[in-house]
């Protein structure tokens, strides 16, 4: 059980797709101008990556390694089409806003990477948690970027007015340059936190060794 | 300072050749540049009143505070007193309209020092001119406030300053004839542009004071004369050749040289030691490129003025220019 939690949790922080692995930066820039769009995109990717991991893991013994990439892509594309049809039917406005980026989920590096390095070598349950954790980390990062950009660029969060009416929104935050700058700063701060954690861990180990020797 | 530490710093410095010493330092150069900008800054206070003074104070104070806190936080030596943050704040204030709401220069200064300078590693490592990044950041954030200029006025009626178009704005939207009519006649127009009694960003209006400051920097050899001459010359030639309605060589080069932020940019921002090529040859390419881009933006682009973006774009290609003009070792082939 603890093992599964670790598999889940590493995608949230230690290997967060956007902030630590710097993968899938294209949607992180393009659809995070509002928190709502970011959340919809994050949930879609979370669903795709989790179900794809399960599918790949289920069929891992019957897929010839020589044709594995086309097989993975077919599987991802099928799931993405599913998501697209559901969104188009039930959330047409959201579907229009996400437009091309929804179809582009098919070629996200992070999804193929998880299928290749994890799901193809592990059983179904760990693969599920790996995809779920990675997807959750991705969605979390997207929403965090979306909230900050929407707050400063429009004064709202999820469309709800937060800043007072006297707030003069800084348009740059909902334009691409603001997205680039913000993601850069957030990656930097995540690295800073990671460095600090590593240092703390090393210190702990040193202490433990010293105690053991004494 | 005790005698021992003086000895340590003064005489035992270990360095590679050449061992020639001079009394120039970053602080000395920066404070000299600040000093020669003071007349133009004072003129902007005279012209736009207390709002200009307020914008200057906000920009400089926030720039220096940002520098101090970032260096303190990173445990780096604190170099607020070397004048480079002061210069960034001063240039930023001179590049934005004087009566802008107070929070805009605050954000601009933080962006200039925090993002353009210290995320790159601090003074000497930044690839873009910090003050111009600050201005570009603000122009993207608050496009309306950044292009609403106060009318130049004396102290008498400074309270209800109304907004005015800049000469380049009128030229872009209404044409050359309207611009001349706006000032009276051509001589009046040139005089007004030269002395600076016109609308525009706080510190860019007075061509004569900026020119005097720039000439002093050239005299002290802090900047190379090739840069402003090539940049302003390029703008003059291109706008003269393609700027008129009646065919080739019917434009008004003098108007284009004196208006907008060209003189401020060419003397004080295209000459920033950090963000331009090292060799004279490279600097000439840089200046001609910046001038050509400025003219392109003014004549064809959507904005009436393009000095800021032109210099930033040339900052981008500075490493490439440096590689292009790299001196060849004696006897070696390129």
Q: What does this protein look like?
A:
The complex is a heterodimer of chains A (214) and B (334). With 214 residues, chain A is an all-alpha fold. Chain A has one domain. Chain A has helices at residues 2-12, 25-30, 35-58, 68-90, 92-103, 109-117, 124-154, 176-213; strands at 156-157, 160-161. A two-stranded antiparallel sheet of chain A has the order 1-2. In chain A, helix 4 runs antiparallel to helix 5 (92-103). The radius of gyration of chain A is 20 Å and the shape is flat. Chain A starts with a helix and ends with a helix. In chain B, helix 3 (50-73) packs antiparallel against helix 4 and helix 11 packs antiparallel against helix 13 (262-269). Chain B has 334 residues and is an all-alpha fold. Chain B is globular and about 65 Å long. The model of chain B is unreliable at 1-8 and 154-161 (pLDDT under 50). The longest helix of chain B has 24 residues, at 50-73. Chain B has a two-stranded antiparallel ribbon with strand order 1-2. Chain B has helices at 3-11, 26-48, 50-73, 84-94, 103-118, 130-141, 167-173, 176-183, 186-195, 207-219, 226-242, 253-258, 262-269, 280-299, 307-324, and strands at 149-150, 163-164. The A-B interface holds A 168, 170-173, 175, 177-178, 181, 184-185, 188 and B 101, 103, 107, 115, 119, 137, 140-143, 145.
Query: How does the helix and strand content of chain B classify structurally?
Result: mainly alpha
Which oligomerization state do the chains in this entry correspond to? Answer: heterodimer
Decide which structural class fits the backbone of chain A.
mainly alpha
Order of helices and strands of chain B: HHHHHHEEHHHHHHHHH
Q: Which stretches of chain B of 5+ consecutive residues score pLDDT under 50? A: 1-8, 154-161
Distance between the termini of chain A: 34 Å
Number of H/I helices of chain A: 8
Question: Largest sheet of chain A at a glance?
Answer: 2 strands, antiparallel
Trace the largest sheet of chain A across and list its strands.
Answer: 1-2
Q: Rounded to an integer, what's the Rg of chain A over CA atoms? A: 20 Å
């Amino acid at each position: 059980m603890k093992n599964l939690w670790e598999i889940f949790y590493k995608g949230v922080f230690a290997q967060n797709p956007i902030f630590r692995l710097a993968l899938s930066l294209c949607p992180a820039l393009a659809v995070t101008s509002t928190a709502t769009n970011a959340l919809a995109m994050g949930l879609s990717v979370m669903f795709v990556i989790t179900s794809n991991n399960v599918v790949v893991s289920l069929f891992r013994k019957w897929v010839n390694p020589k044709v594995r990439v086309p097989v993975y892509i077919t599987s991802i594309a099928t799931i993405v089409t599913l998501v697209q049809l559901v969104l188009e039917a039930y959330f047409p406005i959201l579907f229009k806003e996400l437009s091309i980026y929804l179809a582009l989920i098919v070629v996200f590096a992070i999804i193929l990477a998880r299928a290749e390095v994890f799901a193809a070598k592990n059983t179904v349950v760990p693969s599920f948690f790996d995809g779920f954790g990675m997807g959750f980390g991705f969605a979390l990062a997207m929403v965090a970027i979306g909230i900050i950009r929407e707050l400063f660029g429009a004064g709202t969060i999820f469309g709800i007015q937060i800043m007072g009416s006297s707030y003069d929104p800084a348009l740059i935050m909902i334009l691409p340059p603001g997205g680039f700058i913000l993601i850069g700063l957030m990656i930097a701060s995540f690295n800073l936190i990671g460095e600090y954690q590593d240092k703390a861990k090393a210190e702990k180990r040193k202490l433990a060794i010293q105690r053991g020797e004494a | 300072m005790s005698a021992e530490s003086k000895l340590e710093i003064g005489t035992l410095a270990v360095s590679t050749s050449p061992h020639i010493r001079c009394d120039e330092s970053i602080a000395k150069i920066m404070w000299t540049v600040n000093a020669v900008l003071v007349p133009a800054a004072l003129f902007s206070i005279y012209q736009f009143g207390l709002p200009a003074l307020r914008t200057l104070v906000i920009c400089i104070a926030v720039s220096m505070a940002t520098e101090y806190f970032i260096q303190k936080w990173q445990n780096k030596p604190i170099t607020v007193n070397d004048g480079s943050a002061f210069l960034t704040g001063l240039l930023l204030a001179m590049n934005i309209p004087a009566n802008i709401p107070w929070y805009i220069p605050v954000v601009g200064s933080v962006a200039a020092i925090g993002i353009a300078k210290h995320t790159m590693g601090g003074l000497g490592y930044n690839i873009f001119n910090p003050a111009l990044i600050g201005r570009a950041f603000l122009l993207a954030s608050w496009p309306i406030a950044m292009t609403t200029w106060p009318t130049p006025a004396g102290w008498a009626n400074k309270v209800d300053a109304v907004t005015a178009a800049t000469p380049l704005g009128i030229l872009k939207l209404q044409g050359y004839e309207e611009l001349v009519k706006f000032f009276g006649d051509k001589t009046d127009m040139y005089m007004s542009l030269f002395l600076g009694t016109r609308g525009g960003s706080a510190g860019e209006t007075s061509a004569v004071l900026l020119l005097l400051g720039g000439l002093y920097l050239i005299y002290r050899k802090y900047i190379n004369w090739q840069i402003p001459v090539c940049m302003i010359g390029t703008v003059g030639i291109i706008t003269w050749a393609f700027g008129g309605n009646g065919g080739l060589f019917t434009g008004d080069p003098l108007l284009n040289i004196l208006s907008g932020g060209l003189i401020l940019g060419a003397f004080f921002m295209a000459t920033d030691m950090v963000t331009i090529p090292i060799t004279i040859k490279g600097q000439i390419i840089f200046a001609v490129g910046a001038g050509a881009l400025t003219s392109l933006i003014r004549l064809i682009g959507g904005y009436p003025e393009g000095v800021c973006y032109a210099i930033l774009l040339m900052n981008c290609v500075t490493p490439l220019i440096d590689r292009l003009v790299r001196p060849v070792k004696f006897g070696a082939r390129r």
